[in-house]
Specification:
Layout lengths: L2 H4 L5 E3 L10 E4 L3 E4 L7 H37 L13 H13 L29 H5 L5
Parallel strand pairs: 1-3
Antiparallel strand pairs: 2-3
Helix pairs in contact: 2-3
Amino acid sequence: MELDDVFQKAHVHVFNRWKFKRGASVFIPGLGIIVGSAFVADRNLLLHEFGHYLQFKKWGFWTFFRHVAKDSLLSCWKSQKKKYVWFRHSDTWTEWSANRLSWEYFGRPSDWNTCKYPLKVNKTRKGTEFPVELSQLEAALPVA
């Protein structure tokens, strides 16, 4: 499957301002994936963001905005604060579950960058496990 065909579902837009110039990216339902111009060819990043599209499609509008988007934005903010130097945004449940959905969707590619885009929970870190009220979502994920 060609990536261009896949990303017709979650259009990729270039926004070369603020943190997007330095690698920030986001999936916004109804709009698509937004990245900076230097990162539009970063296949791994696009596959990860496509995972957020898959979360939206799988779990629906309310769960996505109430839990996934909210927790992901808070996690991103926290990872940029000096007092949380130990915190890794990529280890949080919103991120590894997006990775796992995308990894499965694309046929479990063997070249998936599991260091930057982990496929499972790192139980040694806080914030990595699904919130208790969302544990049924974790059960619906493919096994890594």
